[in-house]
Amino acid sequence: MATYSNPQIEYAGTKEAYDKCMQVRIIVFVDEQKYPLHTETDDEYNDKSFDWVATCDKTVDGGATERVAVGTIRLIPVSDTLGKLGRLAVIKDARGLQLGMRLVDFLLKESVSRGMNDVVLHAQYDKQAFYEKFGFVVEQGDENTFLEDGTPHIRMYFRNIATYKPIF
Known about the structure:
The protein is globular. The chain has helices spanning 15-32, 38-41, 99-113, 128-132; strands spanning 3-11, 50-59, 65-77, 82-90, 118-124, 146-148, 151-158. Helices cover 25% and strands 35% of the residues. The protein has a seven-stranded mixed beta sheet with strand order 1-2-3-4-5-7-6, sandwiched between helices. By secondary structure, it is α+β, with helices and mostly antiparallel strands. It contains four helices and seven strands.
């Protein structure tokens, strides 16, 4: 059994780092959640977003340790003041380390530093409570779910993110 430790989040500003993000997205969204591969590889925002990759030291039973990609998140600039959180993913073996929370926390702090006022996301409906922990809300008029790639989603906003109180 593998164990994961020493999580770090870094900007995926190189092709190698971006490829790690894509690797995690394919494992989580395609292999695990059964979305078609093209929803990741042909995504219209792949070239327009800021992506981050979470890595950990992975130690296997024999004691060998290697640094591996375990999570990702992206920020799509919708306008100068509005960003869209997307493609949050953590591989199944690394869940339980609060990496999803760390990634969202990191993205919100980055959004503030980039001068954004608000962040929107399309949450998988069953993940709504996770995002509410950060201050995201469903606004009046957005209460209805909608399908994205066949899965129910709900639109959520974090307005005035300068008021965000970092968790980590």
